[in-house]
Amino acid sequence: MMLPRGGDAGSKPAWKAIGARPAACAPVPCGGGWVSTGEEATRASERPESPASRPDAAASVVLAMRQLGVAALPRNYELFYEAVTGGRRDLVDALSELGARPTQKQLDEIACRLLGRSNEAAVEEAHSQIASKLGEIIALLRKERSSMETYGKILGETSTGLSSPRPLSREFLEKIVSVTATATRTSLASQSETVSTIGSRSNELQSVRMQLEEYKRLADTDPLTQISNRRAFDRTLAAIYDNNRNIVFSALILADIDRFKSVNDRFGHPVGDRILQIVANLIRSTVKADAFVARAGGEEFAIVLEGCGEDATFRIAEEIRQAVLEAPFVNVANGTNYGPVTVSLGLCMATQAQGPDDLYGKADQALYASKAAGRNRTTRFSGLKGGNFIKNWLLYRGN
User: Fold this and answer.
1) For position 396, what pLDDT does the model report?
2) Active site residue 299
3) Which among 332, 308, 307, 323 has a CA at the least distance from the CA of 376?
4) Please, what sign has the CA dihedral across residues 35, 41, 44, 47?
5) Can you tell me whether residue 36 is helix, strand or coil?
6) Above pLDDT 90, what percent of the chain?
7) Which one is predicted more confidently, 63 or 320?
8) d(CA 90, CA 79)
9) Do residues 381 and 348 touch, judged by C-beta distance below 8 A?
10) Is the pLDDT at 117 greater than 70, yes or no?
């Protein structure tokens, strides 16, 4: 698997307004250092604070925007909220580089590039086009109805004239035939034009509908890894609890790349991005085609399985772990080996949770347990002592 040539991972200015970036999946800086392989301790925290223990996200967003002099617009709140809670290192870095008092144009460009707002705008435009085309078709049908009513009125008057008890002159009959023929030709021409125009508008609607489907797909796709994004993941997770059948036959696996911050620090973000892409492809190719795979944030991936018991889910998680462990992460251009790369995994069955948030939280606890036990392993939530696991941040610090 080809990776880009690693360059100097120059240090970037800290984003003071958000500080330690209490993101749901963003790495928390904890000193420098690099550990390449083995189970030795790393000097960088790999996992974020839990949602329950981190500072209030909304307060962090407001504080960050106020300190940077950002206008209090809804789209800006969305942008900074994603940076605080979404585990997007690329987004944090992009906002950091703007410095204090960024322009609205700069913020909108970042949102378009990293949050896919251009896709959302395209979806809105597609909806607008569909509404416009449907409006044109309705107007045509109304026009055709009016035309048919006029034609019907002419035929009715003709019928009344023909049924008159008075003798009908040849001149009168010729006039009736002429009027009827003219009305019929006009009606047929109008119908033909209407059919043709509706056919044309229908083709245009089909084209817009296909564009809309593509825009929707892009809106649910992580731009870096080309698998589903967090928005699609949240929706899929919530759908599990829509009916009892889904609950009985569904499971969640969370996978997190071990010591990923160290990879970025040593080799640079282009290499880190390529590793994310490779791991995403490995996960996607390891599970069945109907399994849902998403980038949950940062270096964390989520897999939603249906129709699998706990033992089968554990085997699939182990297959993912083994596939990543055995994959070569080598730059074929210069021979640099960025591996081995490993992942820690945690899984939870939907029946073991009360809802989507609880399911994610319990799978996350199992993932933390894998990290605490030495990384590069899979843990079941059901196997945790007392069905719970308390996170201890000292486990992630180096000696």
Assistant:
1) 36
2) yes
3) 323
4) positive
5) coil
6) 36
7) 320
8) 12
9) yes
10) no
Q: Which residues pair with 378 in a beta bridge?
A: 345
Q: In terms of DSSP H, where are the helices of the chain? A: 57-68, 74-85, 89-98, 104-114, 117-162, 170-219, 230-240, 244-248, 260-267, 269-286, 310-326, 356-372
* C-alpha dist (Å) from residue 350 to 144, 254, 315, 361, 387: 56, 13, 17, 11, 14
CA distance 327 to 323: 6
- Residue 306, classified by CB atoms within 10 Å of its CB into exposed (0-12), middle (13-18) or buried (19+), is middle
- Give the separation between CA 258 and CA 342, rounded to whole angstroms: 6
Flag whether pLDDT at 85 surpasses 60. yes
Which residues 6+ apart lie within 8 Å of 263 measured at CB? 257, 271, 272, 275, 338, 341
170 or 119: which leads in pLDDT: 170
Query: How far is Cα of residue 171 from the mean position of the Cα atoms in its chain?
Result: 75
299, 276 contact by CB (below 8 A): yes
For the stretch 291-343, pLDDT in tens is: 999 999 889 999 999 999 999 999 999 999 999 999 999 988 888 999 899 99
The three-class DSSP label of residue 263 is: helix
C-alpha span between 176 and 302 (Å, rounded): 77
Over 60: is that where the pLDDT of 34 sits? no
Q: Given a cut of 70, is residue 79 above it in pLDDT? A: yes
At 128, the amino acid letter reads S
pTM of the prediction? 0.57
Tokens 């069945």, residue? 288
Query: 124, 299, 310, 319: which one is catalytic?
Result: 299
Which residue type, as a one-letter code, is found at position 84? V
Q: Judge whether 15 and 96 are in contact, CB under 8 Å.
A: yes
Per-residue DSSP letters for 344-376? Answer: EEEEEEGGGSSSHHHHHHHHHHHHHHHHHTTSS
